[in-house]
Amino acid sequence: MSRSRSDRSDPIVSQDVGAPEPAERVADSVTVSLSELAYERILAMLFGRELPAGAFVSQNDLVKLVGVPVAPLRDALRVLQTEGLLTIHPRSGIRFMKADFEFARNTYQFRSILERPAVRVFAETATHELLDAMIERHQRSIAELESTGFTPAIAPEIGAIDAALHFEIIGSLGNVLVGSTYRRVHNYLQLIRLDRTLTTPIVLRTLREHLVLLEACKARDADAAEAALQTHFSNALQRTLGIF
C-alpha cells in the first residue's frame, strides 16, 4: 500500500535484470489497493467504535471483520503499528491502542510543534475569501448550537469544521512531509476523542476559540494567531482530560 511503500526503499529494477512481467505488476497493484482498503476500513471501524480501543483481536477475526485476505491485511497492520495505533503480538493477536493521559499530552505537544510555525504562515498568506468563509461557517454552527444545542445531526459538521481549519493551517506550509505527519496526528486525535463526551458548552468554547484565531489571521497578526492557537490547544487538552 502507498503508506507502507513510503517506509521501504525498493530498488529501481531495470528491464534487463528481471523486471516484473505485466501480470505481476497488476497483481502487485491489486495487493496495494487491498492493503489501502484494509487500512481505511480498520481506521473506520476503530473510530466508529466497532473495534473498541484497547481491544485484543486475532488476525483471523480481523480478516472476517475487514473483508480482505491475510496478505494485504498484514501490510495494513504493519503500517498501523508503525503509526502507533496498534501492537502486533506474533502468534497471539493484535492489541489496539487505547489513549491515556500521557498519550493525549504527547499528541497535543506534537500537534503544537507542527502547527505553531504553520499558523504564522497561514496568518500571512490565507486569502480573505477563505478566512471569511471559515468565519461564516463557524458562526452558522454557533447559531445552530445556541438554538438547538449539540445533537447527533450537527456532530459531523463540527468535526468537519475542526479538521478543515487545522488542515488548512498545516497546508499553508506546502510541505508534503509535514502534511503526511499531520494526518497521523489527526488519527491520534480521533483516538483520544473516543472517550470524550461532547456537550453544547464544550463545542461552543471550541468554535469561539477558533474564531479568535481566525480573526487574528484576518488581521494579519501572526503573533496573535500563534497565541490563540496555543491557548486553544491548552484548553482542548484540559477539556480532553475533563477539567473544563
TrEMBL record:
Domain HTH gntR-type, chain residue ranges per copy: 38-96
Any Pfam family: GntR
The GntR C-terminal domain, residue ranges: 106-235
Coiled coil: none
GO molecular function, one term: DNA binding
Record-linked InterPro entries: GntR_C (IPR011711), TF_FadR/GntR_C (IPR008920), Tscrpt_reg_HTH_GntR (IPR000524), WH-like_DNA-bd_sf (IPR036388), WH_DNA-bd_sf (IPR036390)
Keyword Magnesium in record: no
UniProt keyword terms in alphabetical order: DNA-binding, Transcription, Transcription regulation
Xref: Gene3D superfamilies: GntR ligand-binding domain-like (1.20.120.530), Winged helix-like DNA-binding domain superfamily/Winged helix DNA-binding domain (1.10.10.10)
Organism superkingdom: Bacteria
Compositionally biased region (Basic and acidic residues): 1-10
Region (Disordered): 1-22
Protein name: DNA-binding GntR family transcriptional regulator
The organism's taxonomic lineage, starting at the top: Bacteria, Pseudomonadati, Pseudomonadota, Alphaproteobacteria, Hyphomicrobiales
